[in-house]
Write a structure and sequence with these properties.
The complex is a heterodimer of chains A (632) and B (356). Chain A is α+β, with helices and mostly antiparallel strands. Chain A is 60% helix and 10% strand. Chain A has 19 helices and eleven strands. In chain A, strands 1, 2, 7, 8 and 9 form a five-stranded antiparallel β-sheet that branches. A four-stranded antiparallel β-sheet of chain A has the order 4-5-3-6. In chain A, α1 crosses α7. Chain A starts with 6 loop residues before the first strand and ends in a 12-residue tail after the last strand. With 356 residues, chain B is mostly helical. In chain B, α5 packs antiparallel against α18, α12 packs antiparallel against α17 and α17 crosses α18. Chain B contains 19 helices and no strands. Chain B has a domain of 135 residues. Chains A and B meet through α2, α3, α4 and α5 of A and α9, α10, α11 and α13 of B.
């Protein structure tokens, strides 16, 4: 519960032909995380399945592209789970290749249709423009004896340079209309040797010719209706292609889902990747398995493999610890808090998993800052009603709602009314200094707990020096506690006290001395850095402790906001207006202050808490498994 | 970070980094060093210790050196935001354009996925395209369809047309290059007024160099027409504007071309006969001007830009030297490839720059 599950490093020795079956079995068990380090690479130089992997990647890419055209169900049902041979995978890949070629042809056709529609639109606009010009269009049409004329569209950005470029070939360009990013132009020049040269420049400039219909001048209506007819034909063609695509999708859907199943079953062997190595007939697979699942794994492999196999297992070495995946079994209640912890990082193997501590302290701090029975019950009700949307975070909403309700009872507050029932503990505004002292005590307790966890984590990682002397080590705790004791004495008795002063100075000097030894730099720089780091340790404790005053500050703020709402209510004369003011005022408090308090509680957890003891750079346990969408 | 702090940070970083730039003597010294020494000096020990086969050497080496450049770029980008950041990022996009061209060419030639992939540069996510997705396309039309949905949509539309009508990658490459510089200039126009003039000058130098190289290649090697050549140039250089370019594309040979250049460029190219000589002389002249910018320019962004350009040139020289040594080429040949003789023309160095 407080740390990731114990793991074993396993080295499986199997016959090479059994490797796909081994991968599949391990994926079915979902307890094996591959170790991709080059272990025994000299004895086992070959990484098997390279071609298999290549085919698989291509097939996946094809399926992904196809699934943009053919919708597949989100759940993958595997009828029979079996080992996928390279031949079967290749067959599936080839089939997917053919399906993709069909889909790609549809895509290309749609692309062409869009271009043609665009072209018709451009032509219509050009013709509208021509009809307004006092120009004999017959001059632009057909072959001319002395003139080479082109009418078309080019990207607007290319006009100036093209104008100058064609000028070199004795041509002229007249832009007569601009539309979007395109310009409509007429290119005119003398017929002759340079025609070919012009064609080449126009192609490079992205010139798209616009064919001027010969009837335009004489019978513009006919041209218009012809363009309409072309548009209609294109729409029909698009419709036909869409229907073709849909029927193709319906025809292929079943087979595509089967092909997807094949890929799901092929994936484990692909994911094993360099964790499997072979030398001829013999292969090894290395990885991590939770110690509790080792026996189950041996049993399952014994059942499935036709050839003999051998498993060596051992506990991780001290050097390997940073590489060992951290496996924290899922707990429905803790899931939302685990997600928030993961935002900061994954615990290192062996480190304390902070999820439970995070959950309890977060819930408590939220309640302390947002204590109100009415608001707490509202959060719970909204969380429950929105459970389909919130999913695992429903539990989060309910928990913080309960906490706010409990603290509401302690503070005697319901929707900001403090006179409806008597506070079990204290209404925050009745004694702000007391509230601040409580928050300070809470902060000190929280920091002490966090520092103790930090010491434990260091010990687990065999970092004994750091556990004792580091900024969050035993010496620091001694300094922190003695300074607190001294300040307490100073406040009550007027003097710091010799024992507290002795321990404080001793701890301070020890910290400074350790830093002097630890820092690798020239003497001057070493002294300066050690001084700064020691000073930083002290200021860190002071600022982190004072940071917890916000817990009390927000509990006071909550009451103050309620007072503000009720002041406004008193200013309203109408009864309906008063009710509305109370309702909207409470909604305002719930949304605005609720969000702020959540952020502040998170901030205290992350910055004052996690940064002290939680490296968050662990490896998440990602076992081989059959990715069926529901992880069934 | 406040502007003044970020400027100071960038200025200091640029100055510190520019101390590693190679002056002429430095290049000479590199040519005389052994492969192992070069590996140690440039943290390429692993690469040098296990040199890949001859066929892969160039690619592996180039990839390693580009990574060095990209790492430095990411450090220099840290304090920057807005137009200045966009300019530096866009400059680095040229490597992405290499990749894009390689993918398009590979697809046109029907090359295998892995073969194309091997030729691509590993670039930071900031500038890279979704290569895997593009490589998984099964023909050029599909590739162009994919590109039409991304940041290269305008180029892709034009590319489709060029491909459909010409079915060859050259025009596409030329269009991509031209678009790249035009976009760079557009970004410079949006830069802070304090940076704009010097950046214009700097990029103008680069465009002049590029324009002349392209002009010679298109006109005299590929024998394109004057009009098409002009269309593929960028009429926004520092010394070579529209009028000069319109005149230059009509020249019949390199000699005539050099004589028609503005005095400064004509002097720099004096005596060059072949396209390669012109290219080298231009490189020397541009390097000289960029070094000057790095030394004396007040705009921090321009200095940083200048540093990156010079560093890229240096890494290319280093590439030539290591490759030459790995292939056991003659010292003189390596020296020529690394442009070691450039020293005579570029006496100024940045190694001892006192500009902070």
């Amino acid at each position: 519960m407080f740390s990731p599950l114990p793991m074993k490093h396993v080295l499986l020795q199997v016959m090479t032909e059994d490797l796909p079956q081994v991968s599949l079995t391990l994926a079915e068990l979902a307890v094996f995380s591959p170790d991709y380090r080059p272990i025994h690479d000299e004895q086992f130089p070959t990484i098997p399945g390279q071609r298999f992997r290549e085919i698989y990647n291509q097939a996946c890419s094809r399926l992904e592209k196809i699934s943009k055209h053919v919708s597949l169900s989100s759940q993958i049902r595997l009828k029979t789970i079996h080992v996928i041979s390279e031949r079967e995978l290749e067959k599936t890949n080839n089939w997917l290749g053919k399906v993709w070629a069909r889909c790609s042809a549809f895509e290309e056709t749609f692309h062409r249709l869009t271009d043609e529609e665009h072209m018709i639109q451009q032509l219509e606009e050009a013709l509208d423009n021509f009809s307004e010009l006092n120009l004999d269009l017959s001059l632009l049409q057909g072959e001319k004896l002395f003139l080479d004329i082109h009418v078309g569209i080019i990207p607007r950005a290319n006009v100036t340079q093209l104008k100058e470029a064609v000028g070199l070939a004795d041509y002229l360009i007249f832009p007569y209309m601009e539309h979007g990013e395109n310009a409509h132009v007429i290119v005119v020049g003398p017929k002759g040797e340079r025609q070919e040269e012009l064609g080449s420049v126009l192609d490079t400039a992205g010139f798209n010719p616009l064919p001027i219909p010969p009837e335009l001048h004489a019978e513009p209506e006919k041209v218009q209706s012809e363009l309409q007819a072309r548009r209609g034909r294109l729409a029909k063609e698009r419709q036909k292609e869409s229907e073709g695509m849909a029927s193709c999708a319906n025809e292929l859907r079943g087979e595509l889902e089967l092909a997807r199943g094949v890929l799901v079953m092929a994936e484990p062997f692909v994911r094993v990747d360099t964790a499997a190595r072979s030398a001829g007939q013999l292969s090894i697979v290395s990885g991590w398995i939770p110690a509790r699942d080792l026996r189950r794994t041996k049993k399952a492999l014994g059942k499935r493999l036709k050839n003999p196999f051998h498993i060596d297992s051992r506990s991780p070495t001290a050097e390997e610890r940073p590489l060992v995946p951290s496996y924290m079994p899922k707990n429905r209640l803790m899931a939302p808090f685990a997600t928030l912890v993961k935002q900061y990082g994954v615990p290192r193997y062996g480190e304390v998993d902070p999820t439970l501590i995070f959950a309890l302290s977060f819930i408590a701090m939220f309640g302390m800052m947002f204590g109100d029975v009415g608001h707490g019950l509202t959060i719970m009700a909204v969380g429950w009603l929105a459970r389909r949307r919130l999913k695992s975070f429903t539990c989060f909403a309910v928990c913080i709602g309960i906490s706010a309700t409990v603290f509401g009872v302690l503070y005697g507050s319901i929707f900001g009314y403090e006179e409806l029932f008597h506070a079990v503990w204290i209404p925050p505004l009745s004694n702000p200094l007391y509230m601040l002292s409580v928050a300070l005590m809470w902060g000190i307790g929280f920091l002490l707990l966090i520092t103790l966890i930090s010491i434990y984590n260091r010990m687990v990682l065999s970092e004994f020096h750091q556990a004792i002397f580091d900024s969050n080590g035993m010496v620091s705790i001694a300094l922190y506690l003695s300074a607190l004791g001294g300040l307490y004495n100073l406040y009550h008795n007027g003097e710091f006290g010799l024992p507290a002063a002795t321990v404080s100075i001793g701890a301070l000097l020890t910290l400074f001395g350790y830093k002097l030894v630890e820092i690798k730099a020239p003497p001057g720089e070493r002294l300066l850095v050690a001084l700064i780091e020691t000073f930083e340790t002290i200021t860190g404790y002071v600022s982190n402790t004072l940071s917890f005053l916000r817990v009390a500050a927000f509990s006071l703020n909550h009451v103050a906001l309620a007072i503000a709402v009720f002041t406004l209510v008193e200013m309203i004369t109408s009864a309906h207006g008063r009710v509305l003011m109370v309702v909207f005022g409470n909604i305002f408090i719930l949304i605005l202050e609720g969000a702020i308090v959540t952020i502040q509680a998170l901030r205290l957890e992350y910055y004052e808490g996690f940064s002290r003891f939680y490296s968050g750079d662990g490896q998440e346990f990602k076992p081989l498994k059959l990715e069926t969408g529901d992880n069934a | 970070m406040p502007a003044s702090a970020s400027d100071s940070y960038l200025n200091t970083r640029t100055t510190l980094m520019s101390s590693q730039l190679l002056d002429s003597a430095g290049v000479e010294a590199l040519v005389d060093r052994t492969l192992d020494q070069l590996g140690r000096d440039f943290q390429l020990d692993q690469l040098v210790a296990g040199l890949p086969p001859e066929a892969d050497l160039g690619r592996v080496l180039e990839r390693t050196l580009i990574q060095v450049l990209m790492q430095e770029l990411s450090v220099l980008l840290r304090p920057l935001d807005g137009p200045a950041r966009n300019i530096l990022i866009h400059w680095a996009r040229k490597y992405e354009l290499f990749n894009l061209k390689a993918i398009i060419r590979g697809k046109l030639q029907g090359l295998h996925f892995d073969l194309i992939k091997e030729n691509l540069h590993d670039l930071p996510p900031l500038i890279t395209l979704p290569h895997e997705q593009l490589l998984r396309t099964e023909n050029i039309q599909e590739l162009l369809r994919q590109l039409e949905t991304g940041p290269y949509s305008d180029i892709a539309r034009q590319a489709r047309q060029v491909y459909e009508e010409r079915n060859e990658p050259f025009s596409l490459d030329a269009t991509l290059d031209q678009r790249y510089y035009m976009s760079l200039l557009r970004r410079v126009r949006r830069a802070q007024p304090t940076d704009r003039v010097s950046l214009h000058r700097l990029i103008g130098e680069l465009i002049d160099q590029q324009n002349l190289n392209w002009l010679i290649r298109y006109r005299f090697n590929y024998e394109l027409s004057a009009s098409e050549t002009y269309y593929l140039l960028i009429p926004f250089g520092l010394h070579l504007h529209r009028d000069q370019l319109l005149k230059l594309v009509n020249m019949d040979n390199i000699q005539q071309l050099i004589e028609s250049l503005p005095t400064k460029l004509a002097t720099a190219l004096e005596g060059s006969v072949s396209p390669m000589e012109v290219e080298q002389a231009l490189q020397t002249e541009t390097t000289k001007q960029i070094r000057r910018c790095l030394q004396y320019e007040k705009s921090v962004v321009s200095r940083t830009f200048a540093y990156l350009v010079l560093r890229e040139i240096d890494l290319k020289k280093l590439f030539a030297i290591i490759q030459g040594k790995a292939l056991n080429l003659d010292q003189a040949l390596i020296r020529t490839a690394a442009g070691a003789k450039e020293s005579d023309l570029a006496p100024e160095t940045t190694g001892n720059s006192d500009h902070v």
